[in-house]
Model the fold of this input.
Amino acid sequence: MSGHDHSHSHAGAPGESHQGRIAVALSITLAVFVFQVIGSILTGSLALLFDSAHVLTDAGGLAMALLAARLMVRPATSRRTWGFARAEVLAATAQAAVLLAVGLIVLVEGIQRLFNPVEIASQEMIVFGAIGLAGNIASMLVLLGGRSKNFNMRAAFLEVVNDALGSVAVIIAAIVISLTGWMQADAVVAMLIGALILPRTVKLLLETVSVLLESTPSGLDLDDVRRHILGIEHVISVHDLHASQIATGLPILSAHVVVDDECFHDGHVPQMLDALQSCVAGHFEVSIEHSTFQLETAGHAKHELGAHH
Done:
């Protein structure tokens, strides 16, 4: 017997006005990306090129926030029982993989340019860096009013703040080159931007791959979950205990729970289901509202065909 009677709505999706804020910020960020790519070609600046890759990644983050806000509100169907919740994970994985490759290439190029510097058009680099910074500030102002409303908005605001820091770094490198003629400043700044971006990229990639591999959600100890379940009155044992994550903020859990035989005769089963679901929803750092339990008698084990875990 199983129990699962929860809504599949997902907390944290922004409302329509928040979608508008993210869409405006995304448009500005994409415009900044185009200007910076043009600028990196015209000036030969590696720092500007890497910052444009950073901007593109953050645009991807904004796009995912917007996509998640729109897709997550779509109802589940008989074909897609979780709707499009997993779309954000797939997009984030692809985004992180691309940026990781770009970042490693630019770091290698940056090391080479330290020893073999190339001529940089520092004045033009300042102009394009300033254009990027102006766009970042505009996006920050757009997102400022809703940055604390939900996780999507907070993440989007942080993306733009990181972009602004990258633009400031590009401008500083251009000023150093203009005043001192030290062309290696461009490579140093490019590597510094990479040092800021790559750890976050690797972390994101590991997190999304973990979700795709159906790993136990971070922060959830299944041994602790098992102990809590075994501590519930009438529970004899637990097997086939599994936990995974569909998307951000959407962990799920299932288990086979062996209970006293009399629970099936005295009408105690509904109370057992309530106790089990309340346990996994409220006792742990990761709250699991989507849980499914199969309650069994001790004699049911011989009917189980698969291996117990």
Observations:
- Residues 1-17 have pLDDT under 50 and may be disordered.
- The CA atoms of residues 136 and 164 lie 5 Å apart.
